[in-house]
């Protein structure tokens, strides 16, 4: 006698959320299919599929996570597969969550570090999703500061009666164990490492030492975050971890691992909240906005810049205000919004003019000076096809920019080449671009190569001209 299959239990949780979201079965299926496309998945769900889920059938693979993300976007609150009455699985959106607590934030970001430092090449192929920016930026803007970040703090070292300092029990002189006390020296080391990797990134590109940075985060920063520290030390520790995580995202962005970079930025934003550093959070949003500009998502770039401005108000130095306005201008430039772009550039220029040499500027904003502002102007005017102004500002930026910012100088040289091309100065444009191409092959930066390729696409109408043939010969010789 054959056994009858076990009867499935209707999924009332999913039914209730479908009703709350106002979805039809077909509408839910369509949204899941669309979200799957963002991740390179060719899904073919329909209203019958949803009916099966409601009857208790469990969807396979990453589909539960996709369904949960559809509801997260619709309802504006983070929902998991379990909230929908579905089996848990490795979420396709892992890393885009804005954690509810500092402990959860450590779990999420350390999971990213571990996967990225291993042989998980697929992590670097994850797609960027503009919709994944909405919930984290909103949660940062309206979220309250964490009441407590300290954990297991053993307090100050006690001196035994014999007068000799107690020796803490630990794994070895050099290896940090879980629960070990975090010191000021530990945090100073994190800061120093950040400066080192930042300098390498500026000079040689994000691909040069990105993997070493991620491994450092896994093997040094994670044990510290899981160590013992009081409130003040904990805030400083989370601030240092946020900075290194943002840098890991920046270097990932530079090698075109855009989905991975997006996840690092979201986690850096959450760590900055645990640090109680609102201003640094605005800088992370600036970084996210820059990535959106680069990928052509101008509307999202503008929104991120405005969230950053709203989040800090006037409580930041003029240099930071100038940075925030200039990034908004870049978003308007990509969208071709001349008036809005010009207005943001004017606000950035006025803010920088009010800064004084004695102002206390955060270390992460010190790069923003006249050279950087001129660079922002140059990019915006190029995007708006205002080539004479673009050339003037790009030339000024190159005159002022320090040699250590090699990649930024390369970008600016390509902007200048594009402006010269737009003005009909073909010889000069090709000469500038050839110099940039020579620098790009010396760097491990996909962005540097893409800047050069963007110029080459602009060259297409002139492909038979002698200067263009000469340019192509030079580039071929470099290859």
TrEMBL record:
Q: Name the source's superkingdom.
A: Bacteria
Q: Where is this region: Disordered?
A: 145-184
Q: What is this protein called?
A: Regulatory protein
Organism lineage string? Bacteria, Bacillati, Actinomycetota, Actinomycetes, Kitasatosporales
